[in-house]
Every structure is written in C-alpha cells, then in structure tokens.
Design brief:
By secondary structure, the chain is mainly beta. The chain has one domain. The protein has one helix and six strands, in the order E-E-H-E-E-E-E. The strands form three sheets. Strands 1-2 form a two-stranded antiparallel ribbon. It has a two-stranded antiparallel sheet with strand order 3-4. It is globular, with a radius of gyration of 15 Å. The termini are far apart.
Length: 92
C-alpha cells in the first residue's frame, strides 16, 4: 500500500548543471519522497544535453527487464534534484 503522505504532485524545473538558463518546466509531476529512483522524459534530457553516466537494469513485478539511464535523488532540504553518487556493489 502506498503511504499518501510521501507522494505529492508539483511543478519542477530541470536544467543541466553547466547551463542553468536552459531550464525546462514540467507541471503535475508526481513525487514519491520514499522512492530510490526518479524518472524524467528521455527526450527532454537529450534536449537539455544531460548525458547519462551509466545504465541501470530493473526487473518489474511482472518479470519484465527495463534499462534506464540517470542517477539523481531528491534533496528535501534544498528542494531540488541532486546527483545521487555512486551505487555500491559487492564483488561476486
């Protein structure tokens, strides 16, 4: 069950770090403060020249495998998306 206290809709702006003037506005975006991953339209990110640094693979509840680029997180104090850093991995 989803806790409604951690989910809300808002307007956000996305801009590349190197060109903040190129920001784009997205309205009615659903934000889940408990989520470990975020999603933004790939076409918008390409338009802003935000380049992925890696590809993550996910398995959905119905068994499908999805691949997604990007690694940002919500900084609740600064109220913005920030780079989430490296994801630790264990040696096999």
């Amino acid at each position: 069950m989803i806790d409604p206290m951690g989910i809300f809709r808002t307007t956000i702006e996305i801009a590349p770090l190197h060109t903040a003037e190129a920001r784009r506005t997205l309205t009615d975006v659903m934000v889940d403060t408990g989520s470990e991953y975020n999603w933004a339209p790939a076409a918008l990110l390409r338009e802003l020249r935000v380049n992925p640094v890696r590809i993550d693979r996910f398995e959905t509840a119905d068994g499908r495998i999805m691949e997604r680029e990007m690694n940002l997180r919500i900084d609740l104090f600064r109220r913005e998306l920030v780079h989430a850093g490296l994801i630790p991995a264990a040696a096999a």
